[in-house]
Here is the input.
Amino acid sequence: MPCLDDLVERIDRDFDREHLASFWTLEPLLAAFVQHQHAAALVNRELQQLCRDPSYMGDWRPNQLMLHRGRGFALSIWWFERERRYLHTMPYLGYYVPLGRDPLRCTRYALPGAYDNAVFDPGLRIERIGRRNVQPLQILPLHGDRDVYHFHVDRPVPVLKLTTAAFHSLEWLFDRDTGYAVQANDSELSATQLRIAAYLLGQLGDAQSLGPLQGLLRHRHHAVRWAAIQGLGWLDADAARAALRQAVQDEHPHLRRAAQRTLDAAS
Here is the structure.
């Protein structure tokens, strides 16, 4: 019977982070873990800790209990309490397993062929594929690289989630009625934190922040690179102009256009 430590050890052994397709070999391990009710035992243990020690925090979020956050993957229990206003892309591959008495109902949509996660395009539209009812303890594979899922919630459903680390920089939101893209958010909290830090450093105006901001110009997320340029604009005009001239050759089209517009306006 694979307990949590055994499951984590086997995932570490079998999951090759450099080849995401190996994630799909993990389903039998997860199935054995679920069938032996280990998730319930882990929640019971957490509740006992909370009762014994009022200062115990655990790894709880408003709607989830994080069971393990490992190298390239995470295992958690989520509480699906209400439907989302928009349909969200998933920046990871995953397995969802409903744990309660009710099925997990979902509608699956296909991302368009022109979809490029890093370059948001409000003209793109998802297409409905079909619906599925996932019975309790059954496993739903989630192909975040090609599909979007709408989870229908009549009443709360606890769901065990095994997911890879994010491999896309953005999480797109699509309108539930029209299917068109409406906005995109950072897929990782660290990117949002870095953007906020860049704005803050620029506002504080400390010359010691010049080096850290210039370092962010090489970040893989285009929004972080742009935030660094904006921070430099408040801190050092010459450094900001140099960064803008470099950004007009950036690999991301949105950043190239923003840099060119800013240079044109300044001239």
In short: The two ends are 69 Å apart (CA to CA).
